[in-house]
């Protein structure tokens, strides 16, 4: 029998002291502390009554765009969404921005902070073709034994405005993308029905889930949302669609929002929020009460769009808690769930959690409770990803 790894005297989710035995890349058992002794030759890590958590999940980021670890990007872009899109495309082309190098630097930073699974949107562009996808796919391959990465083929300029985008998305889904992205079918493409028809046709052809950026405000966003839900129901894609941002849900009248949330729950469509401060956001408590999955992510991290963001998902959980005024300990635990169990369900990551048979993704921090970990964001004392210890200087 191969030696096991033990994390002893740790407190899963702040509960009673326990010992966790890891066999290879799997949690083999979680036992009351001291009930069973490690065998000779096993590796033993002293949890010292630390808080043991499952590995964190980043539900929405853009690894291909980041300048993480690079010189500071001087942002002088205009205020409109289209200004940011055009500025970024120009900057990436002129600077020769390398998606492989950039994505690897940020992916490693995520791992060191305890994120073991993530979903990243990657630009599919008629200027760059599949170059950004190929760069991020190389990072995914290099880190596949430790980081579970989903790649979303994302048309940053929409699917209809630039001829050839549909064909590139088709190729991306055939060559390594896990999820099909989309962007503002009304506000960007100008024809929400036609845009959504293209998206759902491609997803159905390749058997891929969908994750759509929906920034459209108020009734415009609600109208697009209804068209999307019509297609989910017609094509039987319940549980296969995520709507990221969904700003419209924070700006609708109560009755209109309530009816839409009820339909979202019925079609098992998940919502992703980055909990931004300057715009309306989907209501946290109301969405959860309606049975809607709502999980979290950073969006961009230190790129041509924003100087903000961090690979520390405890920080993102804290920002979610602050944006939604979550102050009680149970509410802070719910904010953590946005970057843990709820994110696993929303993205479809399997074998996730602190239980026997789950993938060995573990984080140990010095905190009494999950709420304290979210509020204080303590340093990671120990990180394990798919059974591999991740040190503070881990590289590949």
UniProtKB/TrEMBL annotation:
Gene3D superfamilies: Metal-dependent hydrolases, Urease, subunit C, domain 1. CDD domains: Bact_CD. GO terms for molecular function: hydrolase activity, acting on carbon-nitrogen (but not peptide) bonds, in cyclic amidines. Transmembrane segments: none annotated. Residues 45-381 form the Amidohydrolase domain. This is Cytosine deaminase.
């Amino acid at each position: 029998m191969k030696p096991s790894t033990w994390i002893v005297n740790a407190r899963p989710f702040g509960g009673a002291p326990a010992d966790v035995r890891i066999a290879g890349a799997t949690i083999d058992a979680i036992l009351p502390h001291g009930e069973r002794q490690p065998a000779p030759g096993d590796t033993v890590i002293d949890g010292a009554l630390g808080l043991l958590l499952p590995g964190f999940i980043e539900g929405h980021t853009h690894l291909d765009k980041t300048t993480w670890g690079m010189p500071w990007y001087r942002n002088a872009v205009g205020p409109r969404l289209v200004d940011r899109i055009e500025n970024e495309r120009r900057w990436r082309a002129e600077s020769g921005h390398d998606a492989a190098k950039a994505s690897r630097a940020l992916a490693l930073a995520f791992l060191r902070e305890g994120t073991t699974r993530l979903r990243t949107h990657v630009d599919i562009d008629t200027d760059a073709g599949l170059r950004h996808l190929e760069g991020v796919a190389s990072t995914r391959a290099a880190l596949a034994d430790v980081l579970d990465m989903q790649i979303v083929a994302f048309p940053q300029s929409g699917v209809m405005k630039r001829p050839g985008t549909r064909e590139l998305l088709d190729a991306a889904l055939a060559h390594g993308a896990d999820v099909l992205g989309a962007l503002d079918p009304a506000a960007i493409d100008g024809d929400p029905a036609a845009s959504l028809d293209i998206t759902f046709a491609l997803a159905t052809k390749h058997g891929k889930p969908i994750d759509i950026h929906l920034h459209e405000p108020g009734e415009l966003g609600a109208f697009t949302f209804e068209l999307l839900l019509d297609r989910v129901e017609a094509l039987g894609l319940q549980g296969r669609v995520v709507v990221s941002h969904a700003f419209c849900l924070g700006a609708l009248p109560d009755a209109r929002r309530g009816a839409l949330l009820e339909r979202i729950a019925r079609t098992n469509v998940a919502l992703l929020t980055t909990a931004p401060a300057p715009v309306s956001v989907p209501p946290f408590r109301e969405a959860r009460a309606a049975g809607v999955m709502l999980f979290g992510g950073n969006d961009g991290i230190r790129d041509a769009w924003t100087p903000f963001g961090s690979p520390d998902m405890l920080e993102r959980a804290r920002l979610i808690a602050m944006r939604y005024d979550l102050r009680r300990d149970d509410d802070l635990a719910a904010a953590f769930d946005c970057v843990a169990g709820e994110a696993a369900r929303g993205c479809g990551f399997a074998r996730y959690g602190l239980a026997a048979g789950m993938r060995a993704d573990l984080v140990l921090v010095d905190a009494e409770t999950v709420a304290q970990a979210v509020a204080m964001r303590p340093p990671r004392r120990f990180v394990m990803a798919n059974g591999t210890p991740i040190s503070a200087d881990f590289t590949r």
